[in-house]
Amino acid sequence: MSDTAAVTAPAIDSRPGVAARAVGLRKFYGLGDAVVAALDGVTIDFVAGEFTAVMGPSGSGKSTLMHCMAALDTANGGEVFLGDQQLSGLGDKQLTVLRRDKIGFVFQAYNLVPTLTAQENIELPLSIAGRRPDPAWFDQVIDTIGLRDRLKHRPNELSGGQQQRVACARALVSRPEIVFADEPTGNLDSASGAEVLGFLRRSVDDHQQTIVMVTHDPIAAGYTDRVVFLDDGVVVDELRAPTADAVLEKMKVLSARTVAGTAAGT
Amino acid sequence: MRRVTWRNLVARKVRLALSAFAIVLGVAFVAGSFIFTDALGGAFNGIIKGTTADVEVAPTGAGDFTSFGQDARTIPADVVHELAALPGAADAHGTVEVQGVYVISKQDKLIGGNGPPGLAFDYDETTAITGEPILTREHGALPRGEAQIALDEATADKAGYRIGDEVTLVTPGKNPTMKATLTGIVKFGSEGGLVGATLTIFDEQALQDMFFEGKDVFTSISLTAADGVSQQQLSAAANKVLPDGVVAQTGDAVAQKNEDAIGEALGFINTFLLIFAGVSMVVGTFLIINTFSILVAQRSRELALLRALGASKRQVNRAVLTEALVVGLFGSIVGIAMGYLLAIGLKTLFGAIGLDLAGADLPIQPRTVVVSLVVGLFVTLLAAYLPARRASRIAPVAAMRDDVALPESTVRRRLLIGSGLVLLGVAAMVTGFIGEGGVGLSLIGGGMLAVLVGTSLVSPVVGRPVIVGLGAVYRRVFGTVGVLAKENSLRNPRRTAATASALMIGLTLVALMSILGASAKKSTDQAIDESLTAELIVSNAVAQDFSPQIAEQIRDVDGVASVAQFRQAGPKVEGDQVYVGATDPAALATALNLPMAAGGLSALDDSSVLVSSNAAKGQGYEVGDTVAMKFPKLTDKLTVAGIYPSGGALFTDYLVTLDAMEQGGYAPRDSLLYITKEPAASERQVRAGIDKVLAGNPTVTLKNQKEFADEQKQQINQLLAIVYALLGLAVIIAVLGIVNTLALSVIERTREVGLLRAVGMSRRQLRRMVRLESVAIAVLGAVLGVALGIAFGIALQRALADQGIDVLSVPWVQLVIFVLVSAVVGVLAAVLPARRAAKLDVLRAITTE
Prior knowledge:
Chain A is an alpha/beta fold. Chain A has 8 helices and 10 strands. Chain B is of the alpha+beta class.
């Protein structure tokens, strides 16, 4: 991957290699004087085949960014592209199909339908669309998550780490263009978290899967190719080939700046 | 705690409103039944009091409101003069009363009928015990002679007659149809209400000429007491001068006796309605139990928090029960108001079939309010008690845990209790079938209830195969959405089962009735097919007997070989009124093919009686025994000459000769004529001839065998329609239960709905998922209900085989339709919950706590 891919330059339409792109994205909450800008003009590209982490303090807008990019929420301004598909103007039906066919999700918790077995959960997005998974690819995904012997189990018979691995498998099995992961290790102990992150890393390395992960854990961010830092609804910095220490260092600087900024503002 | 309770009530108003609505419907049924029967009773009591004078003189035992068969006894005119001469009597009025005189409207339609009597009597201004005259002349003049009549206002209005018009009448006397000029309009009592009965007023002489062969006789005498003379004194004085067989009774006693008799008869209607009220209450109970269980389950963490903060078990328990109390009270009060509306509906319904209550009040008596409140509150509290107790058992530490599981009584205990109840119920039913009369019936009813409740307890287990079977279909047809729907209905088997059980109860009864109805219809067909040899039948259209002149005239029609007259009345055997038929045995033998169990039809003569196998079994009769039958005029000792099978073409319990019945004191009135034609005659020609005889008389109709069977089946259908309509309410409550359960499930699964939407489930698929779950619940209830209904139906048919339902017919197609309709009902029940699920905002749903 070349360095030039990670630019915050104005949009250039459907450039190859960009899996998702936000241009001048704005999102407000509240009304009148109480309006808070969760996203205040975010422009960013997520490069295909890359594992990107979005970081920032609470309220920085990182989750909102992900929700808007993943067709779960609509922005108040700006544009979102998934591949060359522009999201604004799409109705609920089209957004639903988009989520089903082009996007994979891993949430922090409650990722699985409790009444379905692990296998049924993994196949869910495909079966909703009335399709069957590609058996070879399905086998490969199952082997990668290492839960072949637990496929017939219901979620409540799986550990938290196993549940998240099943969720990852579900996100990958339909070969989406991009996977959004919202604090996927937030509820896990470090060993289980490492398993899940290792699995995500491998799917990027072995299968060129594009993954965007929201996290506030520097160790998790250390598994990625690139870390984007958000604060007050704008992109403030980024780091390539991060290590956990480098990320931690960057965060310290950022939070000091925020505190200073807040102090100066008052 | 009180404030917490109140807040909860307000916060969950929609869900509670649904349970409250179940109570409203149940209580409305209870209150409506009472209000309606009170209104009915009030109207009848008004008539009774309005027609009763200070002292009433009549042949012994005559004039009972519930007597069956026209009493032919009379009192000679000199008795009236003798009574008028009594020092205590201010006035003595001899009344000539005849039943079965009907007014035919200008459009050739019969006015009244189907229960309410068509009365004819002479004009009577005697003051009734109400203080009002029995009749007052409103307009025009009083009638003179056989060609003039007066009518009561309501009858004249309904028939469209005005003073001066020529009125067509049907009478049971020598002129089956006649015409007379309307000279005046009379008013009955002060209110004028006659509950659908019609009044035709003739002058005294005309009535005597037409119905009593011109003899100067009366059917009863009304005495008015002189000033200062009490009813008792006058009645005692009158009894001293009266001939044998005629007695005087005080007006109060007569009114009381008749009011009691009416009360008893109306009690049956009340019981009938209350049974359905009970069914809806039981169904409502399921709905309330379910709602409170779900509410408590959803709030288990909050309740645990209250416990952790120091609330005692009892306080938690009481908090839940207080909610139930408020819901129950609210539901009951609204229910009573709805009951009033229901009573208006019933009044209209009964008005449509001839029981005209237009002038009657709908009284809400304190008893109605008290019973409705008690029933409503009791049911609600009972239904809320179980979930409340479970809620209070939540350990305080549960508040801190992430997933709070309510302590559930083990499945095994449920199974044990449920199976126990089913066995107990079956045992009670079996005992009930062996037992006799009221005890047997209540054992059967109680047994059915026990089986129903027991089945609903075990239904989480026995219902599983149904859902799994349906799930296999779902998977095949609807794929993943179907699988999800099936899994959702299995994830809380108790809730699904309780919701389905409510529908099960309604459908059990619907299926049961459809089987009994089909069996009754098939039995009717078979009875007519096997035993009716007469080609044509003349029967009364209005449950009132007709003039024997009709039989005489039909005998003269060309091609008629034989006419068998059939009459019915209710004399007493050992103090109980019995159902007795009378006929000419020789004529009946050609009309009916009557296989005798013992003795023979030809052995019947004026001093003997034939008995049905039921009566023989009940009373232990054998051929040669003597039956003492108390007719109005005399008690006849009749020898049992034969026993015929019950439930066949001959539907009375006893059969005597026409003469025996006439000598006993019943006026000669036919209720059925069996007509056999000469072999060579064509049915069409004979029909045409008879039609000519019957022309202008809409109270009797001519039918061939098939039409006769159809007419009887039509009556069964009408009864079924009423029962279905009343059961419909229970089904509505059950459907509300499904709506409630689904709505609550959707709320509970908000997060899951969000997840499904996020991974690409469309709104349509989501709606379909909810709909399929709803259909699964409805079909489960329907399948269990129909299965139980079939079992109960076959059992009851066997039990009633003696009563004429001797052929079993299971209407399979209809039963399958019930299940299919239930599935459709499931689709409808899911409309709102599905819409609600589909409307959930994906992001908010998935991030919900």
